[in-house]
């Protein structure tokens, strides 16, 4: 059977993994939860760079790689692209469409951490929803600010920062309550796309709050690109069916 290697770490990837059986492999970096109820094989941890992934593709006789990593996990996507080219294995990618600003949105782009800090200078109660990066800057919080940081980390925070260790999806009611409780006056976000974490944008819109949006990284091309899990699964099932003949 032609083996598929699915690179995951997102809800889309998990949905695809649920449609795969052994001997296909679902691969996770190991930062989050590892599902124990999948019919396909699960492996956890990095491959050891491009060379390690090339060896893995060869040793495990992988016939197709599907990159369903997060849009900001650019290193893994670049490694997958380079390794597949080297090993002559086709690469498919799930590229979740970015959120688009709607009427009433006040989005400001930032390309890096410095840009984020500059754009939130005049605010007092920022809500960070872009992962762990703010945790490395807790000692730099200006006296005029209190940060609320939502990320997958049980960090204790400090007198100027509250950490919320929570995993999406997040709904409107919960986000409104969080904005009230934390007295949020600006939101900092990745443009992740998808439904699971978009409620914060609706709450910012209804309250007229600015959203500082971290620019998406450039991602490499793939042989085929899909916008969601359902389309990817359809194509996979067709590919598996025809490639076995
Ligand atoms: P990254 O910077 O692109 O990757 C860092 C390294 O982690 C890669 O070089 C690779 O190590 C390993 N890695 C990443 N994804 C892997 C996978 N699916 N299977 C095996 N190894 C993997 O990624 P990141 O931004 O740290 O994100 C790590 C994981 O969390 C990704 O799988 C991503 O889908 C998920 N995630 C990321 C974000 C985000 O905002 N970045 C949000 C939600 C989920 P080697 O070089 O050793 O192979």
TrEMBL record:
It comes from the Bacteria. The keyword Oxidoreductase applies. The keyword Cytoplasm does not apply. Signal peptide: none annotated. Keywords: Cobalamin biosynthesis, Oxidoreductase. One of its GO terms (molecular function) is precorrin-6A reductase activity. One of its GO terms (biological process) is cobalamin biosynthetic process. Pathway: Cofactor biosynthesis; adenosylcobalamin biosynthesis. This is Cobalt-precorrin-6x reductase. The lineage of its organism: Bacteria, Pseudomonadati, Pseudomonadota, Betaproteobacteria, Burkholderiales.
């Amino acid at each position: 059977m032609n083996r598929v290697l699915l690179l995951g770490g997102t809800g889309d990837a998990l949905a695809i993994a649920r449609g795969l059986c052994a001997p296909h492999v679902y691969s996770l970096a190991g930062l989050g939860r590892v599902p124990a109820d999948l019919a396909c094989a699960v492996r956890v941890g990095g491959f050891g760079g491009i060379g390690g992934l090339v060896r893995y593709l060869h040793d495990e006789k992988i016939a197709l790689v599907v990159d369903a990593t997060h849009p900001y996990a650019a290193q893994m996507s670049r490694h997958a692209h380079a390794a597949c080219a080297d090993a002559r294995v086709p690469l498919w990618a799930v590229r979740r469409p970015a959120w688009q600003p709607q009427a009433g949105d006040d989005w400001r782009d930032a390309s890096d951490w410095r840009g984020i800090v500059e754009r939130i200078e005049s605010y007092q109660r920022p809500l960070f929803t872009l992962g762990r990066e703010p945790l490395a800057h807790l000692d730099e919080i200006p006296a005029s600010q209190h940060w609320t940081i939502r990320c997958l980390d049980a960090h204790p925070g400090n007198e100027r920062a509250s950490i919320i260790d929570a995993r999406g999806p997040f709904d409107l009611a919960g986000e409104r309550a969080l904005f009230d409780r934390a007295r949020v006056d600006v939101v900092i976000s990745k443009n992740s796309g998808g439904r699971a974490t978009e409620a914060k944008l609706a709450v910012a819109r209804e309250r007229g709050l600015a959203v500082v949006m971290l620019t998406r990284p450039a991602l490499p091309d793939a042989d085929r690109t899909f916008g969601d899990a359902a389309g990817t699964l359809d194509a996979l099932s067709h590919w598996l069916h025809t490639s076995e003949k």
